[in-house]
Amino acid sequence: MTDIIQLLPDHVANQIAAGEVVQRPASVVKELLENAIDASATEVKLIIKDAGKTLVQVIDNGKGMSFTDARLSFERHATSKIKSAEDLFQLNTKGFRGEALASIAAIAHVELKTKRSEDELGTAIEIEGSKVKSQEVSVTPTGTSVAVKNLFFNIPARRNFLKSDTVELRHITDEFHRVALAHPNIAFAFYHNGSELFHLPSENYRQRVVHIFGNKTNEKLVPVEEETEVLKISGFVGKPEYSKKTRSEQFFFVNQRFIKSPYLNHAISAAFEGLLKDGYHPSYFLNLTVDPKTIDINIHPTKTEIKFDDEHTLYAILRSAVKHSLGQFNIAPVLDFEHQSQLNTPYSYKNKSAASPSIEVDRSFNPFADDNKAKHTSQYTSFKKAPMASWESLYVGLESKGNNSENDFSEVTFESDSKTESLFGNTSVETSKTTFQLQQKYIISTLKSGMLIIDQNRAHQRVLYENFLKHITIKEATSQQLLFPLQLHFTPNETQIISNLKTDLEHTGFVFSKVSDEDITITGVPVGVPESEVSIILEQLISDVETDVPDANFSATDLLAKSMAKSLAIKNGQALSHTEQEHLVNSLFACKEPNVSPTNRPTFITLGVDDIEKKFM
Ligand code: ADP
Ligand code: MG
Fold this sequence. Notes:
Number of helices: 20
CATH topology of the largest domain: Heat Shock Protein 90
Helix content: 25-40%
Mean pLDDT: 79
CATH class of the largest domain: Alpha Beta
Low-confidence stretches: 332-432
Number of strands: 22
Oligomer: single chain
Distance between the termini: 65 Å
Bound molecules: adenosine-5'-diphosphate, magnesium ion
Largest sheet: 8 strands, mixed
C-alpha cells in the first residue's frame, strides 16, 4: 500500500487557520486594529459597511511596509514581531503568530496599500482567496490601509452563519471599544455605512472611558491605583449604585491587551461584596501591568485568554486594591453615614435625577396583615391539632424515632405557618381553599385525576406576556401619568436600544417626552407598573436585547413583551394570598398557551393519582 499522508496546500491550511482566527467581521476588525497599533500608528480609522459583511477597512498612519514585506505579510507564520521562541515571553506587540493576514486573505478579497515614510512610493496588493491578483507600485500616504471585502465569499456556510447586521455591528463595536480603551493615547475614528459612530482624540484614560460610555459615566468612576512588585493596577471601578444587569462594562487589560478572566472578575466581585444587589454586576475598566515573562498569551488563537504564573497573588492584590478604593471614596459602608444612606437608596432609584421627588409605595404593605396573621395562625393550629393528636398516638413510646418519622409532617406544618405570615391579606376564604402555596414558589391545586403543581413565576410570566403582546399588537394601552417626569440616564448605546423599541414601548403604555443621547424622560407608564420598577424594566430590556442575540427572525415586540413579563412577574419567594393564587391559576388557564412560559419552559406539572400510588408501593 502507498503512503497516504500528505501536506495540505497552503491555501487549505490558511482556510483552516482562518476558522480559528476569523469567526465574524468583528474578528477582522480586531486583527486589523491590532496590526495598526503594532505599527505604532497614532491615528487609526475604522470604516465598516453593512456590519462588516461588505467591507472592513482600517487605515493607519503607522510605519508601513516595504514592497517585499507587503507581499510577505500574507504568508502564514510571516511576522516581524518575534524571531525566536524566547521572544514569546517578551511580547510587547499585539500580534506575533503571523496568521491574521494570511487567514483573512484566504477567505475574503483583500486590498492592501502601504508606504513607509522613507519611501517615495508605496505598494498596492490585491488578494482573493489566498491568490495574489496584482501587486504594483502605488501613490499612497505613509501608513497602511487594509480593506477586507466580501468576507467568507468562498465559504457560504460561514457567511450564512453570520447574524443580523445589528448583532454583527454590536460585536464590532465591542472590539472597537476594547482596542480604543486599551490605547487612549491613540486617536480613533469609526464609521459605519458613511456615518461617524465614534471620534476619539488622543486623550487620557478617564476621558477615553467617558467618551466611549457617555458623559454621565464620569460621575460614577472611582479611581483604582496600586503598584506592587508583581503587579501595577490603574483604572476605574464603577460606584456600586451604577452597577448593571449586564456585564457590558467590564474590562480587564493586561499589558494593554483586552482579556477575559472569570477568576480575576471574581476578585472584583469579592471586593464589591455586600454592595451589589443580586443579579447586578459592577462596572470596571482596569489596566493591569505585569512582567511579560509571567504570563502566557499564546494559549488561544484570539489571545483573549491568558495564563498568569501566580494568579492567586494577583487575585488578592486586585481585590484589596478595589476594596481600598471603594472604602477610600466612602463607597463601602464605613464610618460615613451620609454615604451609607445613599447606599441604601433603592436600586430602582439609582438613575433618577435628584430633582424629582416621588412617593414610594410599599405594595406589599397591608395594615391588616398582623390581624390576619393572628387569626390564621389560630385557624391553622386548630385545624392541625386534631390530626396531629392522632398521628402522635402512633408514635407513643418511640420518642426520638417518632420525631424523625414525623419530619415530613412537620415540614407541611411549617409550610402553612410561613404562609400565614404573608403580608397579603388572607381572608376567611382560606378554609375552603382549593390551592395552596409550597415554598412560596409553587401553587398546588387538586385535579380530578391527581394534583397540579404550578410554578408561580413562570405562570405569571405567561399571563403578563400574553397581555403585553395583546396591548402591543392592538396598539391600545392605558397609561398612567406620572406626577413628576422620570429622568433616566443611559449610555448612548443603551438609549439607542430604547429608541429602537420606542413605538412598541408606547403601545404598552409608556409615554416618552424625550429620548436623547444619554437621557430618557418618561411621563407615563403602563397602568399597574409601579414607577419604582421602570428603570429596572428598561435595564432588563436593554440587557435582554444585548444578550438574547436577536437574529434575523427576531421580533422586537416579542422580546419586549417577554422582557417586561420577566421584570414584573411575581417572583419566587413571594407569598400569595389564596385569592391571588386562584386568580393566577385562572388567568394562566385562560391563556392561549398556558403550559409553557414565554421562554418555553413548563409552567406546571401534574402528578396523577397513579403516580402517587406507585410511590406508595
Ligand atoms: P502578526 O501581527 O501576528 O505579526 P499578521 O498576519 O497580523 O501577523 O501580520 C503580518 C505582518 O504584517 C506583521 O508582523 C507586520 O510586520 C505586517 N503588518 C501587518 N499589518 C501592518 C500594518 N498595519 N502596518 C505595518 N505592518 C503591518
Ligand atoms: Mg497581527
